Amino acid sequence: MDLVVILLLSLLCLLLLSLWKQSSGKGKLPPGPPPLPVFGNLLQLDVKNLTKSFNSLSKVYGPVFTVYFGMKPTVVLHGYEAVKEALTDLGEEFAGRGSFPVFDKLSKGHGLIFSNGKIWKETRRFSLMTLRNFGMGKRSIEDRVQEEARCIVEEFRKTNASPCDPTFILGSAPCNVICSVIFQKRFDYSDEMFLDIMERFNENVGIISSPWTQLCNAFPVLLDYFPGRYNQVLKNYDFLKSYILEKTKEHQEFLDVNNPRDLIDCFLIKMKQEKHNQQTEFTLENLAVTVFDLFVAGTETTSTTLRYALLLLLKHPEVAAKAQEEIERVIGRHRSPSMQDRSHMPYMDALVHEVQRYTDIIPNNLPHAVTRDIKFRNYVIPKGMTVITSLTSVLHDDKEFPKPNMFDPHHFLDESGNFKKSDHFMAFSTGKRSCAGESLARMELFLFLTNILQNFTLKSLVEPKNIDTTPIANGFASVPPPYQICMIPV
């Protein structure tokens, strides 16, 4: 009997605490739907499609509103003006990384993506400088991308026009490019370790994009007591981290401080330079997480976008045909595409942009946080508050893109057929926390897709009108449905 009373009292205290926390910020935070004790607004949100829920709430509460994930209030910014004002105009104030328990438990505050404060600033500065030194956005990295583009073509030729799942091939190419920068090596596509790494990447993205993850982010205690599939995420992460540390040991044995070969060498040299600094951010732990972040960021979003691109081209063969006509006219079939060609290929450039706009791979961006108490549109957002910026609301703005829910490269073409830039194109986010590898990803998407369309006609196993492009997961990332494709050599 005493145990029951204790449990009831504990539950009552929890409810009162929840009500107090949820009411204590009212009058300061932006408006939003009334939260329930403990659960907040979770029962009012579609955790399978938060984008849809945010769109509905914005119609009621405007472009700035508050939702409660469990007992935790989160400010949501919806629409181009609100997102731009926060991430660009007030970039420093919104440069924090918001809470994302599923990832926080992995990174433990280290690395490039989920760190904050001094460790983030130092790691990002180092990473950007090192990536530039190893050719990011330059001709030297383009040579590596072109090499992988040739490998993509060769691997698809091996299918002999038979139905194939393109997932592995399209993931291997960007992974090898980032490996060449991090490890100074590339993998053969049949390498067992490489196959294992790619499989673990794909598995983790699928799990982290599930509704279950949204629930765990709202109630982090579930990760400790009811981890479920999260155990597999941990196993995959530990495997990849161990591989990175193994490669780091190999680098330490043959390190030449006067001749760094790759990013790991540069990080190890930085560690030596700061070995007497007790507050240094350059540690083995931060190295492992930073390399992991670059590894994943340099592989997953690009490969997912490529996979989605081919699916959309199967769905819209008229778009593929028009792109191939431009490729034939500008490049022909006897030389490889280069980045110099892009300025002469407005339709292909528009196609790549439209793929990114339409697929909206990271629909709600990674969570931001404000770095100090800030007044934003007459509301007070306290320091540390998590802020979600809806990239979908920007990329699918019907004022900027007349047919936002239709795949149409003309969204990025003017009346004369010239490429048209758009400030609404935030596929890589914007501001202080924008994607560090944006220039590389742009290069890969253009060169990989151009090479594929130069060498193959894409054939679907089903009628284009019957192809469903609806993502199978839409939590952290939009994941395209699995499909088979026939690559017919031209």
UniProtKB/TrEMBL annotation:
SUPFAM superfamilies: Cytochrome P450 (SSF48264). Residues 1-25 form the signal peptide. Keywords: Endoplasmic reticulum, Heme, Iron, Membrane, Metal-binding, Microsome, Monooxygenase, Oxidoreductase, Signal. Heme binds at C435. Its cofactor is heme. It is an enzyme of class 1 (oxidoreductase). It is a peripheral membrane protein. This is Cytochrome P450.
